[in-house]
Design a protein that fits this description.
nine-stranded mixed beta sheet; single chain; about 25% helix; about 375 residues; 11 helices; disordered N terminus; alpha/beta
Length: about 375
């Protein structure tokens, strides 16, 4: 979405410097703000930040409020930088636009316009009506990239899906016996742990649960000041043929929900609920239905760490927007060794789904290829 408002000059290094500072602040909310966006704010006077803040989680004050509190009287006549347009409506918190006006801020520099129709453009118009100079579009691409999941949730009314897998150079995620520990390097696994900490939910199927018995946590140690974020762990099981013992049933570590359909085994249902595992019975268990369920729970970023059959279904139903593929410099062979994506029903190479906006980086001994699937309606 292109901003309809005037943009800052591309050579304005000062604006870009402070907007990058806002993005650094905003990242402190990674994995914690859904369904809200990550937002950072800096109030600058005479080339110095006199107040900073970020949005920590839904229900708590927005970034502008924290920055204004920190600045106090020094906000009067200052420039306020914020990575997302200040809101101009009453939700869980009062409108930030009014707080900015009351503080006497002289100028507001905005990274991007809020795609939320309740806000979009309204906050900027309110500030300008109050006589405040507003500049829009500084580091807009970076601001949009940071909140790509929030934007997708607002525009598409469903979470942003990321398919993550690790495979050998010949495209295998396990051997013919099913052994898969470890395809990728320790550095790649550490990258995935960080990715999980930035996600709201992780989805696996019954086969992955039985074969790998995963933790699906961030595996990050407590630092004594900020608690480690672990996402909601989601198991999709149409058969409800679940193991009696599994790491995912240890809900004191992280919450777990099992999605199923029909009439699940009452004894196993009771066992799971006794362990504080949630069970949600959907009318029909599909990737699309799972994403709709997680949307209603307020999730923005959903990580698919499933096997090839479920990943193919998720792609086919438009539940995956981004692919993160770790490629290990190993060859395992095997005609029946599993691959990361199952049958998509494509019979011609011209029908292949070509990733867009590709990037490649070295992670330990592996290479991470990331890209976006073509958008579908």
């Amino acid at each position: 979405m292109t901003s309809p408002f005037p943009t800052a000059p591309a050579d304005d290094e000062t604006h870009r410097f402070w907007m990058q500072r806002c993005l650094t602040l905003a990242r402190q909310g990674l994995g914690r703000t859904a369904p809200n966006p990550m937002v950072g704010c800096a109030i600058v006077r005479d080339g110095e930040a006199v107040g900073e803040g970020f949005h920590p989680k839904a229900g708590e004050p927005h970034a502008e409020v924290f920055a204004l509190r920190a600045a106090g009287d020094r906000a009067f006549g200052a420039t306020l930088y914020v990575s997302l347009e200040p809101c101009n409506h009453y939700g869980r918190t009062p409108p930030c636009s009014e707080a900015v006006i009351q503080a006497g801020v002289a100028r507001v520099v905005v990274g991007m316009v809020d795609p939320d129709p309740r806000v979009s453009g309204g906050g900027i118009e309110r500030l300008r009506a109050a006589g405040i100079e507003v500049i829009v579009g500084v580091e807009e691409r970076a601001c949009r990239d940071l909140n790509e999941a929030f934007i997708h949730r607002i525009v598409r009314q469903r979470p942003f899906g990321i398919l993550k897998y690790a495979m050998t150079l010949d495209g295998k995620i396990a051997t013919t016996s099913g052994h898969s520990a470890w395809v990728s390097s320790p550095e790649a696994r550490a990258y995935v742990h960080r990715l999980r900490s930035h996600s709201d939910a992780i989805i696996v199927g019954t086969n992955t649960l039985r074969r790998d018995n995963p933790h699906l946590t961030s595996h990050q140690p407590e630092d004594g000041s900020v608690s480690v974020h672990n996402p909601l762990r989601v198991v999709m099981s149409r058969s409800f043929d679940l193991p009696e013992q599994a790491r995912l049933w240890q809900t004191q570590i992280a919450p777990t929900v099992v999605l199923t359909q029909g009439d699940p085994n009452p004894e196993r249902l009771a066992q799971l609920r006794d362990r504080q595992v949630e069970v949600a019975i959907l009318p029909a268990l599909t990737p699309k239905a799972a994403m709709e369920y997680l949307y209603q729970r307020g999730c923005s970023t959903v990580l698919w760490e499933c096997g090839g059959t479920l990943s193919a279904q998720a792609i086919a139903q438009g539940c995956v927007q981004k692919v993160l593929a770790f490629i290990a410099p190993k060859v395992i062979g095997g005609q029946t060794a599993p691959s990361p994506v199952g049958d998509l029903g494509l019979t011609q190479m011209t029908d292949a789904l070509a990733l867009e906006r590709l990037s490649v980086e070295r992670v330990g001994q592996d290479y991470l290829l990331s890209g976006y699937l073509p958008e579908t309606a």
